[in-house]
Write a structure and sequence with these properties.
InterPro entries: dCache_1, Diguanylate_Cyclase, GGDEF_dom, HAMP_dom, Nucleotide_cyclase, Rev_trsase/Diguanyl_cyclase. It contains 13 helices and 17 strands. With about 525 residues, it is an alpha+beta fold. It has four domains: about 100 residues, no CATH class; about 100 residues, PAS domain (Beta-Lactamase, 2-Layer Sandwich), CATH 3.30.450.20; about 90 residues, 2-Layer Sandwich (Beta-Lactamase); about 150 residues, Alpha-Beta Plaits (2-Layer Sandwich), CATH 3.30.70.
């Protein structure tokens, strides 16, 4: 009888234990993935902020006052995340937001050809000479009109900022989140003894047997889990991990004690065991006299216990009697109800967390769309910026075979714009740029498919697809009259010079643009306020 009851208890324990572990692992993996994505989007936000600064014409002209202003502005926009902001010129001289200067020698700072094909760079932690502590450098290149590297703008993110963000992750009792970089170096951990001192290894150590296998899985899987033993406290632990977008090779880990996962199950089963032991002692005293009456109820009890173990929806049939079998039946019924209730609670928690993750993903997608719009538009005129125009021009060239006529490029430059700035100030100059952008946009909304971009400074570029030379000339003449008659107060009259070039077969965009650009300078040399074909 003791062996029979013990077998039932052991079967119940193993079934519910594995069910609880599966639910907890599913929840922990989703938490790791969700917060890894959130952390990745935080770095995406930093990159977008830096790119907006890198497009500033004053930065590209290496204006020291403007550079100092933008570095301090980055610290403000970072809302406490950044410990410093830096600018590196072509001579590799570094200037930070505090006015410190230094020659760059650390390989973490990319230069010249190392930026080829890269829109940003995020370093592993480096020791900052100015802050005297390890920081992560997030940087973007500054490119000139020919897409050549002229400098770097970046921010320094202290490891404490990462640790603070990880501390906001809601975890179960006995769990904690930590972070390792692409070299396997631990850069954030609740135990500061690990930070920048412990590097992950694929070899299983005597202290953490099994953890090396988890490290191997992080090298081939985007997310997953594993088990290892912490021999320091003789505690089995479960680790889930997820990779972080924008941080190649970085992994977010969540470690949980197995004992905490099964705590409530152990508590319920311990109560069942105590109750069962007491009842079995009473039962043994009466077994000889009541053996015949016990066989049938025991078979019935065994049947329903096994059914309840295999099917959580099974309705346990309680034996209604005042003897020991009836009490044991009620005890099993109570135990199964508690276990099934706990399982239902965990399933509900997983369902809620899944819904939360879905809601956050919707918000993140909306924020990403807004960031993409910000990154593709000129912040002053709200026309396409040069980077977005390059993408659009590639699409137009690919679709050129569908049109009967080749596309035409117009490079337009405001006449005497420097005098306007000198006489009326840069604020008026910015207003003139915005008013001209508005006039160009209105012209392009008149049923055509023209694409207008602010190329830089007072220079604008217009792409006119599938149009004849006469059509383009008529458009340019009408545009001259429209601008000449528009109100650009306090400027009495605004004029422009433009170069126009139709794309030749097998011509690259660079060659095509240079023809239009040279024609624009020819128009200026010819007296301004006109357009010339290149």
């Amino acid at each position: 009888m003791i062996a029979f009851t013990s077998t039932l208890l052991l079967t119940t324990f193993l079934t519910e234990r594995n069910r609880v572990l599966d639910l907890e692992l599913e929840k922990s993996i989703e938490i790791s993935r969700m917060h890894a994505e959130i952390l990745g989007h935080e770095f995406s936000r930093y990159i977008t902020m830096l790119q907006m600064v890198s497009y500033n014409p004053e930065i590209q002209l290496r204006n020291k006052d403007s550079i100092d202003f933008q570095l301090k502005k980055l610290l403000t926009l970072g809302k406490g995340d950044f410990i410093n902001a830096i600018y590196i010129d072509q001579d590799l001289m570094l200037t930070d937001a505090n006015g410190n200067t230094n020659k760059v020698t650390h390989p973490a700072f990319l230069k010249a050809e190392q930026w080829a094909g890269k829109e940003y760079n995020i370093s592993t932690p480096v020791f900052s000479r100015f802050e005297k502590k390890p920081v992560i450098i997030v940087a973007v290149p500054i490119l000139n009109n020919l897409e050549q590297w002229t400098g770097t703008i970046g921010v320094a993110l202290p490891l404490s900022a990462i640790t603070k963000k990880l501390s906001f992750i809601k975890l179960t009792k006995g769990s904690y989140a930590w972070l390792a970089d692409s070299n396997g170096m631990i850069v954030s951990h609740p135990d500061e003894r690990f930070i920048m001192k412990v590097q992950l290894s694929t070899t299983n150590s005597d202290t953490f047997p099994g953890f090396g296998d988890i490290v191997k899985r992080t090298q081939v899987e985007s997310h997953g889990y594993g088990h290892y033993l912490d021999t320091r406290i003789n505690e089995s632990k479960v680790v889930t991990f997820a990779k972080i977008s924008n941080l190649p090779g970085w992994n977010l880990f969540v470690t949980t004690k197995k004992s905490e996962v099964f705590h409530e199950v152990y508590e319920i089963l311990s109560n069942v065991i105590v109750t069962s032991v007491v009842l079995m002692l009473i039962f043994l005293l009466l077994i000889n006299r009541l053996s015949r009456n016990l066989v049938r109820p025991l078979l019935r009890l065994s049947k329903h216990v096994k059914a309840s173990v295999n099917d959580k929806h099974h309705q346990f049939d309680v034996i209604e009697s005042n003897d020991e079998i009836g009490q044991l039946s009620k005890a099993f019924d109570d135990a199964f109800k508690k276990i099934h209730s706990h399982t239902a609670y965990l399933e509900e928690v997983v369902s809620r967390r899944t819904q939360e993750i879905h809601s956050k993903n919707v918000i993140l997608k909306s924020q990403n769309k807004a960031l993409e719009d910000i990154a593709s538009l000129d912040p002053l005129t709200h026309l396409y910026n040069r980077r977005a125009f390059n993408v659009l021009i590639e699409k137009e060239v690919l679709h050129n075979t569908k049109h009967s006529l080749p596309p035409t490029l117009v490079v337009l430059d405001i006449d005497h714009f420097k005098k306007i700035n000198d006489q009326f100030g840069h604020d008026v100059g910015d207003d003139i740029l915005c008013l001209l952008a508005h006039e160009l946009s209105e012209t392009n909304q008149s049923g055509n498919d023209h694409i207008t971009c602010r190329w830089g400074g007072e220079e604008f570029v217009i792409l006119i697809p599938n149009a004849s030379k006469d059509t383009v000339s008529s458009y340019m003449t009408a545009l001259q009259e429209k601008i000449a008659n528009a109100n650009f107060s306090p400027i009495e009259k605004l004029t422009f010079s433009a170069g126009v070039a139709t794309m030749w077969p097998d011509e690259t965009f660079k060659e095509w643009f240079q023809r239009a650009d040279r024609a624009m300078y020819d128009a200026k040399a010819a007296g301004r306020d006109n357009f010339i074909w290149g």
